[in-house]
Amino acid sequence: MSSEVEPIRWQGDRLELLDQRLLPEKEEYVVCRTAAEVATAIRDMVVRGAPAIGCSAAFGVALSGGSPESYELLAKSRPTAVNLFWALERMRKAKDLKAEAEAILAEDLAANRKMGAIGAKLIPSGARVMTHCNAGALATSGHGTALGVVRSSFRNENPLSVIACETRPYLQGARLTAWECVQEGIPCTLITDSMAGHLISRGEVDLVIVGADRIAANGDTANKIGTYPLAVLARRHGLPFYVAAPLSTFDPAIPEGSAIPIEERPAEEVTGHRGARWAPQGVKVRNPAFDVTPAELITGIICEKGVATAPYRESIAALRNG
Question: CA angle at residue 290 from 46 to 243, to 5 degrees?
Fold first, then answer.
């Protein structure tokens, strides 16, 4: 993805969000002029990815002038990504709302680039890197978290390649991660989620790296549904499993993963896609959007201040307070 592509654009009196529901076929922006419009864009997946949700919510507050209703609307838009609530709390304390929202956006981009530089050192030359969902520029203010690490390593002339899991049911890997890799020129192979174990067992993967929507105080990590099985597979086959996320994704108020709220999304995302339906009418559906990977399965958590490793409670606290 070229640096000119902006997932989030602030124009002073409006927020423009690259509509990720239309990618990769179309590149169009949704214009938001109110907090309610930003909340709808977050809920309807115009914008997604924990850091991007937080940045967008901050601008939603700025557009409303900080009205109490705006905080309530935005807080209800998505429950799992802690960056949303982190940004709202930061905006509550701000004297200049627009300046604070702009600072949150700029700081996220800087954090992603720092994270990329730190994490790039962990990727061996020529590594075959598996990732799940989209933790690239589209999930943030730019550059990305997990895919930002890959991007930084690739730009440092590492001849790596990416294996992108399609990420059912919303296909963020197929539609977004693959698109970003093609834009950047990073070699990328797309697979269905159920193919991951086969490739890992055949020695065709060197490491796994994913993003996060919330990280508990003990290192348990919520990420897109399907992440936990990849961590189990990586442990079974002796592969490193990394998480990359900014400090705003760490939630010290959540002691462990079982306390992380898991969003359930509409059944229509499972029974079909973009107007096509393949499941029979009347079938029951579950659609949890996230799962939790226990800290014991994580090799390291990369953030803009360094890499946390086990014991995670202590190393995470040191990074947050350092």
Answer: 95
Q: What is the CATH number of domain 114-321?
A: 3.40.50.10470
CA distances from 111 to 1, 17, 102, 160, 245 (A): 18, 20, 14, 23, 9
Instruction: Indicate the domain borders of the chain.
Output: 8-110, 114-321
Over residues 202-233, the pLDDT tens digits come to: 999 999 999 999 999 999 999 999 999 999 99
CB 131 within 8 A of CB 177: yes
DSSP run (H or E) holding 43:
helix 35-43
Give the residue numbers annotated as catalytic, written as ranges.
213
Cut 0.70: pTM above it: yes
What is 244-297 written as a DSSP string? E--GGGEETT--SGGGS--PBPPTHHHHEETTEE-SPTT-----B-EEEE-GGG
Q: How far is CA 32 from the centre of its chain?
A: 22
Q: What is the pLDDT of residues 5-45, one digit of tens each?
A: 789 999 999 999 999 999 999 999 999 999 999 999 999 99
CATH number of this structure's domain 8-110:
1.20.120.420
Kindly give the pairing relationship between strand 221-224 and strand 290-293. antiparallel
Residues 104/96, Cβ–Cβ less than 8 Å: no
Output the DSSP codes for 54-65: HHHHHHHHHHHT
Can you tell me the mean pLDDT for 267-279? Answer: 93
